[in-house]
Amino acid sequence: MGRIPVGFDSRDDVLDVVVADDLADCRLKDADELEFAVEVGMFSAADARAIHAAAAIADVTSRRWPFDEGAWGRPPPPGLLLPTTLPAGWDAP
User: Fold this and answer.
1) Are 6 and 87 a contacting pair, CB within 8 Å?
2) What is the pLDDT of residues 36-50, one digit of tens each?
3) What global pTM score does this model have?
4) Peptide bond into 75 cis (omega under 30)
C-alpha cells in the first residue's frame, strides 16, 4: 500500500482478520487461499510469512492501537481543518 497523488494504492493480500465487535475473539480467514496463492506463485513463502505477521492478531488481543478503546475518545488536534473540496483528478485511474 502506498500514497499516490489521488489517495492510496493498495492490494489484497488474501488473508483477512475477523475481529468480534467486543474484541473478545479474533481469527484469520482465508489462510487456505493464501497457501494456494503461494502454490501458484502469486506470493512467495516469505511474502506469506510477512502477510501473516501483518495480520496483527497480537495487537487485537492485547488491545494495542487502534484496538485500544481509550485512543478513540481523544479529540482531533487543534486547528485540524477538514477539506471542503476534492483535488482535481481525484477520481482518475
Assistant:
1) yes
2) 999 999 999 999 999
3) 0.60
4) no
